[in-house]
Amino acid sequence: MAKKPSIEPIYQALATAYPGVKTFLHFETPFQLLIATILSAQCTDERVNKVTPGLFEAYPDAYALSQAPLERVEDLIKSVNFFRNKAKNCIQTAQRIHIQFNDQVPPHLEQLITLPGVGRKTANVVLGQAFDIPGITVDTHVKRVSRRLGFTRHTDAVKIEFDLMKAWPKAYWNDLSSWIIVHGRRVCKAHKPACESCFLNPYCAQKLS
């Protein structure tokens, strides 16, 4: 594989282009971020942000959601994809957090990924945005952009995550994940990427224009 690109100019370019970007989901507590992130799987953040106000008004914390009737949660989130399965996962996750973690979201990846509906991507979002613990969120945009930039040649999310952990300084992980997601949505799209106007074009290993 070709030599990986230098991260410094890419980091600085993204920082300049997308200042202040953090998470895209609305939340007030680590638990609410966890639930919102579970709901965001294969669903837009915009859609999730439309259903979580009602959900969190009814069930604002782990204890409340752990006691919720499944049918009621399904009704509150029915406009998100796979709402039946997600409702079940949210309730079961709340029950686990209530019983095993004293109603507190654990700030450890190894514990988070034991919760229903929580994989490494969800866990890293929560760690980074709720606890400021470095983590790399590998969603579809990070997969695509990191491959085009030459940081990885893998398609598996976990393998990409570990490649990026080696290529990026740990202090950059949270911000770079967020910035690259934005860049993938706005510029480096799956179809018809705007290479001609992309400020990362000089550093791109896979120029598509």
Structure description:
With 209 residues, the chain is mainly α. It has 2 domains: 30-131, Endonuclease III, domain 1 (Orthogonal Bundle); 136-203, Endonuclease Iii, domain 2 (Orthogonal Bundle), CATH 1.10.1670. The protein is 56% helix and 0% strand. It contains 11 helices and no strands. Helix 2 runs antiparallel to helix 6, helix 5 packs across helix 6 and helix 9 packs across helix 11. The radius of gyration is 18 Å and the shape is elongated.
Structural class: mainly alpha
Shape: elongated
CATH topology of the largest domain: Endonuclease III, domain 1
Overall mean pLDDT score? 94
Helix content: 55-70%
CATH architecture annotation of the largest domain: Orthogonal Bundle
The major sheet is characterized as: none
Strand content: under 5%
List low-confidence stretches: none
Straight-line N-to-C gap: 22 Å
What is the name of the CATH class of the largest domain? Mainly Alpha
Report the total helices: 11
Count of domain modules: 2
SSE arrangement, N to C: HHHHHHHHHHH
CATH superfamily of the largest domain: Hypothetical protein, domain 2
The total of beta strands comes to 0
Rg from C-alpha positions? 18 Å
Q: Which tags fit this structure?
A:
Endonuclease III, domain 1, elongated, 2 domains, mainly alpha, 11 helices, Endonuclease Iii, domain 2, 56% helix, 209 residues
